[in-house]
Amino acid sequence: MSDSNNQSPDLEPSSKKIKINHENDNTVSENQLELKDFILEKVLNNNTVRKQVCLQGKFRDKSGVALVVLEKNAFKNEDLDSKGYFSVDTELKTFFQNDIYGNYECFPRASINGIKTSITYPATEKHIAKFSQQETHIVLETPELYQKLTLPHIEKEQFNLQWVYNILEGKSEQDRIVYDNKCEQDGFVLLPDLKWDGITKETLYLLAIVRRRGIKSLRDLDETHLPLLKRIRDEGKKKIFEKYQVPASQLRVYLHYQPSFYHLHVHFTYLRHEAPGIYAEKAHLLDTVIGNIEMIPDYYKKATLPFTIREMDNIFKVYETNGHVQRIVKPDIENIELIDK
C-alpha cells in the first residue's frame, strides 16, 4: 500500500488536508479529511522505538471507524546546517546544565519538523487488528498446512485489492510512480511505499508491484516466474540508483511471507534503514528466492515456511482451532492476592 507527501523539502508541508484512497470502494476517492475533525477513541499502539503512534477514532459528522498513524520523520542530512536545525529560528529549552554537560529540547522551524501521517478511512476490523499492539507467534507452515488452513483463509479474508488495480490501471498515484514496465507478463510498477515520504533518502522504501494478476505470494512462485523476478531485481535497482543515487550494494530487496496483501510485490529498502518486517521470520531476500527456484523449480511449493501471526489476526484463530498455536494467557493481576512474607 502506498501513500505520499510529495512536497519539496524547502516548502512548508501541509498537515491538515490528506487525500484518501478508499480500499472498500472500486473508484478513486477525492475526499479530503481534516485532522481537526478527528476524535480520538483509543490508542492502539504507541511504539517508542519507531516514534510512532497508531490511533483509532472517528471523523466529526462522518460514520465509520478511522485509523490515524503519526510517525516522527528521520533526520535529513540537508537540514543539518544553518538553514535547518541550526538556523536563527531554532529555539532551545534548557532541562539542565552542569559543567560541560547540557540537556535541552530543540524547537526547529515548522517546515523541517513535520510528522508523517497516514489515514485509513473507513477502517475494517482487519485494519484495527493490523495496527494494534498484541502478542505475536511463529508458525511453521508445511505445504499441507498451507493447502488446508492458510490458502482457504487467504481466499476468504484477504484485503480488497482495488487500490492495487487502481495503480496498475493508471487511475491513481501516477505522479508517484518511479518506474513503469508495462509488459503484462513480466512488467511491474515501482513506487514509494506507504511508510516512506518519497523524499528522505535515509528511510528509502519502495514497492515493486507486479502487473500479472493471480500471483498471491511466495508460495505461488516457480521457474516460470524467474524472468519476472530477475527483471524486478535488475531494473528496480537500476532505476533507484538513477533517481536516488543509492547503489545496488546498499539495497535490501526482499519479499514478505506472509505479505500484508496478496498480490505479488517486492520491497526495496535502504540497507542503513531498519524498516519494519526486515527480520528472519518475515523477510526473504529476492536473490535467495531466485537461487532456491533455480536449484529446485518448485521449491516454494515444497518448503516449510515460517511466518508470524498475531493473536487478533483471523488466521491465528484458524491455527489455534486446529491445535498449531496456543494463545498467551496473562495473569489477572487485579485478583492476585498479595502474600505478606
Automatic annotation (TrEMBL):
Query: Per its UniProt record, what InterPro entries does this chain match?
Result: DcpS/DCS2, HIT-like_sf, Scavenger_mRNA_decap_enz_N
Active-site residues from the entry: 265
Q: Identify the residues that bind substrate.
A: 163, 173, 193, 195, 256-267
Q: Where is this region: Disordered?
A: 1-25
Q: Report if keyword Hydrolase is assigned.
A: yes
Top class in the EC scheme: hydrolase
Could you tell me the EC number(s) of this protein? 3.6.1.59
The catalytic activity, as recorded, is:
a 5'-end (N(7)-methyl 5'-triphosphoguanosine)-ribonucleoside in mRNA + H2O = N(7)-methyl-GMP + a 5'-end diphospho-ribonucleoside in mRNA + 2 H(+)
Question: What is one Gene Ontology biological process annotated in the Swiss-Prot or TrEMBL record?
Answer: mRNA processing
Q: Which UniProt keywords apply?
A: Acetylation, Cytoplasm, Hydrolase, mRNA processing, mRNA splicing, Nucleus, Phosphoprotein
User: Tell me, what is one Gene Ontology molecular-function annotation carried by this entry?
Assistant: 5'-(N(7)-methyl 5'-triphosphoguanosine)-[mRNA] diphosphatase activity
Keyword NAD in record: no
Q: Which family does it belong to?
A: Belongs to the HIT family.
Q: Please give the name of this protein.
A: m7GpppX diphosphatase
- Write down the species: Trichoplusia ni
